[in-house]
Write a structure and sequence with these properties.
438 residues; alpha/beta; TIM Barrel; eight-stranded parallel beta barrel; two-stranded antiparallel ribbon; globular; binds beta-D-fucopyranose; polysaccharide degradation; carbohydrate metabolism; cellulose degradation; glycosidase; hydrolase
């Protein structure tokens, strides 16, 4: 039998357990005056998303949130990670929709009455289409508009939030979406990518300044990390993996903690950054109160012909999830200890996402083993001195998995997308048992 999930008592006192969600992936956008976002546009464009599915209905969390929060409370969770849909709060990118703010107000109160600490992410990718029309993250003005949005949300619900993250996964916002073309807006354009790589950090910095000015505390950001393994010891492959590591794992954290971009990434991106970018580094480099770490997998990289970054991925040998991602818990330990050593020292860190997609509807013992292995990896990092204070499973519910549509199931709880019925899986029960207070 697989290793069981380590019980709560084996973690430091006060360690928080929770599950993560994101607005566009669970809420549904048909109700409450939500406006169109660039994800609606992306999904409506043939070839971008499996079966061209979108987030219009998703899990209907907009109406069913009480049931979803009950599921978390019944699993003895301590916290709930959610995001605010920018297009719900500001449907045309400018005007505030009071119904949108009312929804998040109810949702946060719903967490508090159930004893769940609200972990807010301001931006988990639902850019209003009206701002996409103006260039989205290629346009520097979007940064100031994001700071406005951050202020509007914080004025309404900030008094009840345990921790606020500005942005979820800037690598996905910038690189995956503007260079690799896999997420909205679906661009494959290095100049657009250079701008987005910088502007998303400037947006973070400007929002941090704005929220600090309002007296808001517990401010951070959620970054994703993906171990870059060289395909061989050949110098060209080592250099390819180092370039990948710089773009993915170092660009954002080094900008925030050192006020500088890594040389291996600047080599290719410098010509495509907005003019005068150096002058923004002071705004970007601001103390965080905490860091969120999302971790799923590793990738193997080899040198490839062609223009910078001149790398290609090589298929790895490890068992894979339904996403095709190798299962590699050691990578989580690697990043938690590396971040403490090289970047954030003793800053509180939360694993804000970790999980696996799996086709099995209810008997998902593979998922239980995955969670157990990644919690053990977290414990090893803590033993090595990393100040990890919580762990959020991605995700509570099967949901809209972006370009994969509804096909890839990450949930502890099964969702029937015809009836929207929720059914806890075996992994949900295993986690609930490990988290029970005794
Ligand atoms: C992360 C995203 C999250 C979810 C998981 C599987 O990159 O933050 O929304 O899609 O991957």
């Amino acid at each position: 039998m697989a290793d069981p999930i380590p019980p709560r008592a084996t973690f430091p006192p006060g360690f928080l357990f929770g599950a993560a969600t994101a607005a566009y992936q669970v809420e549904g956008t048909r109700f409450g005056g939500c406006g169109p976002s660039h994800w609606d546009t992306f999904a409506a464009t043939p070839g971008n998303v499996v079966r061209a599915e979108d987030g219009a209905t998703a899990c209907d969390h907009y109406h069913r949130w009480p049931e979803d929060l009950d599921l978390a409370a019944r699993a003895h969770m301590d916290a709930w990670r959610f995001s605010t849909n920018w297009s719900r709060v500001m449907p045309d990118g400018m005007t505030v929709n009071p119904e949108g703010l009312d929804f998040y107000d109810r949702l946060v109160d719903g967490m508090l009455v159930r004893g769940l600490k609200p972990f807010l992410t301001l931006y988990h990718w639902d850019l209003p289409a009206a701002l996409a029309d103006l260039g989205g993250w290629r346009n520097r003005d979007t940064c100031a508009r994001f700071a406005d949005f951050a202020e509007i949300v914080t004025r309404r619900i900030g008094d009840r939030i345990a921790a606020t993250a500005t942005i979820n996964e800037p690598w996905c916002v910038a690189w995956l979406s503007h260079f690799l073309g896999a997420h909205a807006p679906g661009l494959r354009d290095i100049r657009a990518a250079g701008r987005a790589m910088h502007h998303i950090l400037l947006a973070h910095g400007m929002a941090m300044e704005r929220l600090r000015g309002l007296g808001q505390r517990d401010l951070g950001i959620v970054l994703n990390f993906d171990r870059a393994v060289p395909a061989s010891d050949a110098p060209a492959d080592l250099a390819a993996a180092a370039r990948q590591d710089a773009i993915f794992n170092r660009w954002f954290i080094e900008a925030i903690t050192k006020g500088a971009y890594p040389t291996e990434a600047l080599e290719g991106l410098a010509p495509h950054l907005p003019q005068g970018w150096q002058n923004d580094m002071a705004v970007i480099r601001q103390p965080l109160d905490w860091l969120g770490v999302n971790y799923y997998t590793r990738h193997i990289h080899a040198a490839a012909p062609g223009p910078w970054p001149a790398t290609r991925e090589v298929e790895g040998p490890l068992p894979k999830t339904q996403m095709g991602w190798e299962i590699h818990p050691e990578g989580l330990e690697h990043f938690l200890t590396r971040l403490a050593r090289d970047h954030v020292g003793n800053l509180p860190v939360y694993v804000t996402e970790n999980g696996m997609a799996l086709a099995e509807p209810l008997d998902d013992s593979t998922r239980t083993a995955f969670v157990a292995a990644h919690l053990h990896a977290t414990q090893r990092a803590i033993a090595a001195g990393a100040n990890v204070q919580g762990f959020f499973y991605w995700s509570m519910l099967d949901n809209y998995e972006w370009a994969e549509g509804y096909e890839k199931r990450f949930g502890l709880v099964h969702v029937d997308f015809e009836t929207l019925a929720r059914t806890p899986k075996a992994s949900y029960h295993a986690l609930a048992q490990a988290l029970a207070h005794n």
